[in-house]
Amino acid sequence: KQEVTQIPAALSVPEGENLVLNCSFTDSAIYNLQWFRQDPGKGLTSLLLIQSSQREQTSGRLNASLDKSSGRSTLYIAASQPGDSATYLCAVLDAGNMLTFGGGTRLMVKP
Amino acid sequence: DTAVSQTPKYLVTQMGNDKSIKCEQNLGHDTMYWYKQDSKKFLKIMFSYNNKELIINETVPNRFSPKSPDKAHLNLHINSLELGDSAVYFCASSQEPRVGGTQYFGPGTRLTVL
User: Fold this and answer.
1) Is A61 touching B (CB cutoff 8 A)?
2) Which residues of chain A make contact with B90, given a CB cutoff of 8 A?
3) d(C-alpha A73, C-alpha A66), whole Å
4) What distance in Å separates the CA atoms of residue B72 and residue B106, rounded to the nearest whole number?
5) How deeply is B1 buried, as exposed, middle or buried, from its count of CB atoms within 10 A (0-12, 13-18, 19+)?
6) What is the gyration radius of the CA atoms in chain B, in angstroms?
């Protein structure tokens, strides 16, 4: 059974810092990995999707890497801004055609 | 222009009642999903459905059933509601997920069972 863990559970940083969010998964037989953002009381917004054959994806100030063999992914956020404050979720798609989510990292960027 | 919409946004009901939550997507996707987010904000897949197969998470009670009148809709029916069903329910859709279909989520329905 796939299990996804995110560390840290919560993070508070001053504006402008570069930061790294971590995600690990127990079963490396995945099709892809996605990073999502969730604002309080809202739905999820997909940030980046990495196919199992890819090593990383970039979008603006966000960069996500994937090391499938070790069961790890990181989301790198450069030059953080208060508007980046949200919960970040990673999820893996496995052979069961279902996304398994981690518990999320709650990020607060202080002005 | 909402890509994935859900109704109602809030649902408050008594234990034992039967209720439905509706979901519609206008993205032309062929796969739709229902997720449950509990009070600890942990998000779990409940169902994955396209016109060929329904995949059910084994932990979902059979009081929950998805109904798809057409490709653009996947409604969630819940029978004999229990206190533990209180949560936020999200609908999502994607193209074939195994070839990299990003999932697009609806805004959620907050269900409260009294």
Assistant:
1) no
2) 43-44
3) 4
4) 13
5) exposed
6) 13
Q: What is the pLDDT of residues A59-91, one digit of tens each?
A: 999 999 999 999 999 999 999 999 999 999 999
- pLDDT in 10s for each residue of chain B, 114 residues: 669 999 999 999 999 999 999 999 999 998 999 999 988 888 999 988 887 788 778 788 999 999 988 889 999 999 999 999 999 999 999 887 766 678 899 999 999 999
Amino acid found at B53: E
> Cα separation of A19 and A78, whole Å?
7
Give the gap in angstroms from C-alpha A30 to the nearest C-alpha of chain B: 9
Q: Which residues of chain B are within 8 Å of residue A98 when distances are taken between CB atoms?
A: 45, 48, 55, 57
Residue A75 touches chain B, beta carbons under 8 Å: no
Q: Two tokens at A84?
A: 């980046």
Q: Which of B74, B72, B62, B84 is nearest to B15 (CA)?
A: B84
| CA-based nearest distance A42→chain B, Å | 6
Residue B105 touches chain A, beta carbons under 8 Å: yes
Task: Decide if A109 touches B, using CB distance below 8 A.
Answer: no
